[in-house]
């Protein structure tokens, strides 16, 4: 879909499920395991980021996974949902559910490329390029990134993991 000399953005296919699962675990742990790894965290990532779950997301007719790669190496992905009402704007059903760039490739513009490609897919599939997402309040790097791209805050949401709650900010593109 998009070409930036050596990086390419394309829709994920069934064969990408293993790589998407492995990348998700790496990025999730790097981003959120602030105090190291404990059993709750391990249970969460190993249950959530399986090849089977990624294959289900790739096959979801109300979703789309866009990935960015270099040659045949996965560098990051965006997971889009077209049927996910925003908690504070229920008429808005376009959600960017995940945006993960492999840690050693962060800061090279790949996240920005995936945002642009996601807006194009939302527009094409729903007639509306607007979408919402959530970001952990402590994830300052991502919050800076979204601010740079013009997102605005439209409320709070909670991420729950085995009874523990973490505050997320809801952002609108
Ligand atoms: C947040 C994230 C998606 C941004 O994608 P990216 O490809 O790294 O970002 P880009 O290169 O397009 O944009 C760079 C901006 O992002 C921020 N940033 C991203 N990576 C950074 C890094 N390694 N060091 C410093 N700033 C970084 C800065 O605000 C930077 O702005 P600048 O270029 O003016 O300095 C990516 O770093 C990521 O996957 N992080 C971990 C997972 C995550 O937090 N996802 C979002 C959850 S909602």
TrEMBL record:
Domain (N-acetyltransferase) ranges: 7-173
Pfam families the UniProt entry points to: Acetyltransf_1
Keywords associated with the record: Acyltransferase, Transferase
InterPro entries on file: Acyl_CoA_acyltransferase, Bact_Acetyltransf, GNAT_dom
Signal peptide: none
PANTHER family: ACETYLTRANSFERASE (PTHR43877:SF1), AMINOALKYLPHOSPHONATE N-ACETYLTRANSFERASE-RELATED-RELATED (PTHR43877)
Official protein name in the record: GNAT family N-acetyltransferase
